[in-house]
Design brief:
Blueprint (H helix, E strand, L loop, with lengths): L10 H9 L5 H13 L6 H10 L3 H12 L3 H11 L5 H14 L10 H4 L4 H14 L5 H9 L7 H14 L7 H5 L4 H15 L5 H14 L4 H4 L2
Helix pairs in contact: 2-4, 3-4, 3-5, 3-6, 4-6, 5-6, 6-8, 8-10, 9-10, 10-12, 12-13
Protein name: HEAT repeat domain-containing protein
Organism: Nocardia aurea
């Protein structure tokens, strides 16, 4: 493992920077681990740049860990800049890292446009970060914004949204009726499945979706008989 300090002039530091971009993912993983084991603010830019392009999930996770080891005073502003990147992975990984850092000051950079981002992975990362960072006074507004995304994407995207809403707690239930009255069957089923999870967090998402779809298909007047 290569120790890191703040003087980036010796061959060890150069090797670590080179290793972050190596062809072999194990080499990149070891370099990211070294950056976190011996945290040095001088490596902030290199770690953030690598997050934007790193193809390996495990290496990305180690890069995030390395960034959490640096002072949030410097990481949060830098990651906030990444949220304006045209590269979707840069945005999603920055959001993921902000959620792991957990600094309340990052809430100000979680914009409605990120919560509705056209890229599903960016949106999912934004939802997860938002529920970690949102102040109590703004939970209702966040829940209302997230509710505009009902019916979006595949199973994994919908599960992510439901989990984010459930994590907000009791402020969510009052915003669900509007979605459950939508003309879109997918929106209605997704909202009902989320209500099912909110009332019974131990329930499986797929079972909640199946039950919700039956209610949507048969009509709300049949809800009681389909959930018994």
């Amino acid at each position: 493992m290569v120790p890191i300090n703040s003087t980036h002039t010796n061959p060890q530091h150069t090797r670590l920077l080179d290793a972050l971009a190596a062809t072999n993912s194990s080499t990149r993983l070891e370099a990211a681990m070294a950056a976190g084991t011996y945290p040095d603010p001088g490596f902030l830019d290199a770690l953030v740049r690598r997050c934007a392009v790193e193809p390996d999930f495990f290496v990305r996770d180690m890069l995030t860990w390395a960034l959490t080891r640096l002072p949030s005073d410097i990481t949060v502003p830098k990651l906030g800049v990444e949220l304006r990147s045209e590269r979707a992975q840069a945005r999603s990984q920055a959001l993921h890292t902000l959620s792991k850092i957990g600094d309340p000051r990052a809430w100000s950079v979680i914009t409605p446009s990120l919560l509705r981002d056209a890229d599903d992975e960016v949106a999912r990362s934004a939802w997860r970060a938002a529920v970690v960072l949102v102040p109590d006074a703004e939970k209702e507004e966040l829940a209302a914004t997230l509710a505009t995304q009902f019916g979006r994407g595949d199973r994994e995207v919908r599960l992510s949204l439901s989990r984010a809403l459930v994590a907000l707690g009791e402020v969510v239930e009052p915003i669900l009726p509007t979605a459950m009255d939508s003309h879109d069957d997918g929106v209605r089923a997704h909202a009902r499945a989320t209500l099912g999870l909110l009332r019974d967090p131990d329930a499986g998402f797929d079972l909640a979706v199946d039950a919700a779809k039956r209610v949507v298909a048969l009509g709300p007047e049949r809800e009681e008989t389909t959930t018994c």
